[in-house]
Design goal:
TIM Barrel; about 15% strand; 8 strands; 11 helices; eight-stranded parallel barrel; alpha/beta
Amino acid sequence: MARIAELLSQGRTFSFEFFPPKTPEAEITLEMTLAELEVLKPSFVSVTYGAGGSTRERTHDLVVSINQNTTMTAMAHLTCAAHTRHDLLEIVGRYAEAGVENILALGGDPPPDLDLPAGDLTYAAELVNLVREVGPFCVGVAAHPELHPKSPDRPADRRQLADKLGLADFAITQFFFRPDDYLTMVEELARLGMDKPVIPGIMPVTNLSSIQRMAAMSGAAVPPEVVSRVEAVAGDAEAVRRVGVEMATELCRDLLDAGAPGLHFYTLNRSTATREIYALLGLSA
């Protein structure tokens, strides 16, 4: 295992994100994906945390399993929404006991239909401080290149992000589609005196409707030029996937050329698109 901040200090990182499977079939798919992506020697991988703690045990078990049974370093996502302070201290304490050193601290927004309590903490920055109380973790936070959906305005968004990142070690962005959205955010943070690494998150468009739905939830927008390129081949699922990989590769290349500290791929527990982008970028081992 390695601390992500130390990896970033040594050079670019390339990482993958997974979510805990819900069914035996999904477990088999993830096992295959982990094996197929491990050979790419990622700097680290991360495991998501379900709304309101719905994957609390599965996230913990998957993170520990990856650390113990593969060559990869796993980071645990953790949200504070709908959790008591006691719950969070217990979760983080278990990670410390299991030797997990990296945590991504998130606010989290449970779906309203779950009717969950608000929780003792409101913001990710509070969770960063709580994690620090438990032990010397390496802590990451989220960044939104196109602004957090709850931000009142751009200056407030960037100020809050700079303050949150100041408490953490690094950030990973929500996925986006235009390099300028990321680069502008980094420039705005720099003007506020914040230069800690912000890793861009990459989501290849392999299904237009699903990506639009996920983008809306994260406060992002699918640009018209992306929509038009996908719609031009909408009748051919394989062509849609191929165009999505091409666009993601172009975005990755632009970001790396501009000096991004790494790339974080949202895999959706599948390996094909990520492996293809890796090959096109010349990153394959």
